[in-house]
Fold this sequence. Notes:
7-stranded antiparallel β-sheet
Amino acid sequence: MNTSGFHEGERAVQARAGATEEAARLHGMLRPPWLGGGLRAALAARTFAVLTARDREGTLWTSPLTGEPGFLDGDGTTLTVAAAPPAGDPLHGLPVPQPAGLLAIDLGLRRRIRVNGRLTDGADGELTIEAEQAFGNCPAYIRPRLLAPDTTAPAGASAPAAVRAALDDRDRELIARADTFFLGTTHPTRGTDASHKGGAPGFVRIEGGELRWPDYAGNNLFTSLGNLTVDPAAALLFLDFTTGRTLHLSGEATVEWHEPAASGDEGGTGRRVRFRPRRVRGGRVPLREATARP
């Protein structure tokens, strides 16, 4: 991957949003990463992450990863993940090498770190990512919640969930009350990214068989929107933090522009994303919400 500066999609969105100067001040975040010091300590403290990559058929998915503190270990530019998507997950047995994006997030502390690079090894239940980018994001729009391991989760591998082409009623109900989801996007030469999206319950709207959500004001890097401007492939992950149910969606997304504060502009930015699911799968994650902070 070539991570020298912003790519053409990011620059296009920054220019249209009037944020070119603000983004230029963050250019240093694109320097080659060093997963040591404080960043290594922050990664080691996490117990939950999400991974965006492609399955053996080339379909983009975003999946959860969990482990004890220390399961994410940074050393130089190498991130070792002592976990891998289990049987039943759409990324189980994912091919190596390939671009991959990982988001390590602590919802309770509202801290998140993005590590984007190349997945170079996936043997023996571990993943190795050679990082090309690594940076933190602000805590905005993260709903505080404490997660704990689910001790009631059945041991052993689960059967793969059937792949569907459309949402069912349970999917719609989960999406309608979600205040959190994770978005995976990709770029032909600049790799893959996983990001967090949050808002008040209902911020993701279902219109027919499509989803849409507002793009709230953020750090002005526009990694996700920049990727979608070049490549519409997208993967969404919703979680029911009460039951551990997961909903994986893979499809295409487009960025829609309109007048700020126009009718339906919940984000007040004049930007929203419309997503068309092509593949739908369910699953489970062995985590539950322990308590929620106000």
